[in-house]
Amino acid sequence: MRKRVIGAGAVILVALGIWLGNMLGLGPGRDSCTSDSSDSDAENVHVALTADTETATTDENAQAAKETPKVLTLLIDDDKYLIQSGEDWYAEFAPATLDEIVARLGEIPGDENGVRVRLRFKANAQNGAISDLKSALTDAGVDPEAIIEDPDYVE
């Protein structure tokens, strides 16, 4: 009985210590090794980098839109197929048929991992449309290993 009381008391003391430490700002997430002057320098560098990268990003986006992508990204929405142009965060989608998708595959060289097609899905993507697309890609000579599927849905 005495061991149980001592054990319970130790657990309560540890919990109380953690709670008080967090209340006083001594918990995890606080870096006590840095000084205030280095924090202000880091903020200045961050601001300077942000300003420079915004202008560089717009120029790179314009060039990327003109280039032929290495991977053909397709979005399946309900029973429709859409071809993505641009990067994910500012992508535009154009409707396409299976024949148009197969014709575009001739322009797609693939990336360094051998991936030629990337499939993205909306939550309402129909299994029949997915199956038809995979059959058309296989018939066009695309290896199943050259197709990747995004695990997340596009909104």
Counted by DSSP, the helix tally is: 4
**Strand order in the largest sheet:** 3-2-1-4-5
What CATH architecture of the domain at 68-154 do you see?
A: 2-Layer Sandwich
Mean pLDDT: 78
- Helix/strand/pairing category: alpha/beta
Number of β-strand runs: 5
Low-confidence stretches: 31-55
Major β-sheet profile: 5 strands, mixed
User: Helical percent range?
Assistant: 40-55%
Q: What is the name of the CATH class of the domain at 68-154?
A: Alpha Beta
Q: Write the element-wise H/E pattern from the N-terminal end onward.
A: HHEEEHEHE
Q: How large is the share of residues in beta strands?
A: 15-25%
Stated plainly, the CATH topology of the domain at 68-154 is called Nucleotidyltransferase, domain 5
N-C termini distance: 59 Å
Description:
With 155 residues, this protein is of the alpha/beta class. It has helices at 2-23, 36-66, 98-104, 127-139; strands at 72-77, 80-85, 92-96, 117-122, 147-154. Strands 3-2-1-4-5 form a five-stranded mixed β-sheet. The longest helix is centred in the first third of the chain and has 31 residues, at 36-66. Mean pLDDT is 78; it is low at 31-55.
Structure keywords:
Nucleotidyltransferase, domain 5; 47% helix; alpha/beta; 155 residues; 5 strands; single chain; 5-stranded mixed beta sheet
